[in-house]
Amino acid sequence: MKKTVITFLISAALTGIVSADQLGYITKEQAEKAAALLKSEREIMLFCGCCDNDPKIYLKVADVKVKHTGYQEYYQVIVTGITRTGEKMTVETDLAYVHVNRNGMAVAAGTVLGFKCDPCVYEMNWKGETESQDSDCPE
What we know:
The protein is α+β, with helices and mostly antiparallel strands and about 140 residues long. It is about 25% helix and about 30% strand. The protein has four helices and six strands; from the N terminus they run H-H-E-E-E-E-E-E-H-H. The chain has helices spanning about 1-15, 30-40, 110, 130-135, and strands at about 45, 55-70, 75-85, 90, 100, 105-110. Strand 5 and strand 6 (about 105-110) form a beta hairpin. The longest helix is centred in the first third of the chain and has 14 residues, at about 1-15.
């Protein structure tokens, strides 16, 4: 049984079924830069391109915080917001899988910040469904 579990974990890692955190635990300096970027965004998209059946979640940013993880000198960025369906969410982010809108394209926040990561997707359109809903709201 133990051998079967180990074999499964190795094969899952090799085939990409198991995705590792890339930019979930980061330095304080990186977390502060990321928080500043995400605070400046009206909406972000959460999407893991390496994960099977991961839905794209668009989140209107309400709050962004930097928090110590409790592990060594690592920090994380916590984002609170409202989804397009009206659900309030608070997420511990991995910047490889948090995307921002750059000229109609979804770009990983980690990439925008120049952090080494593999978002697994590089050409992804940003779906502007909220533009018509928010057109009469002042900026």
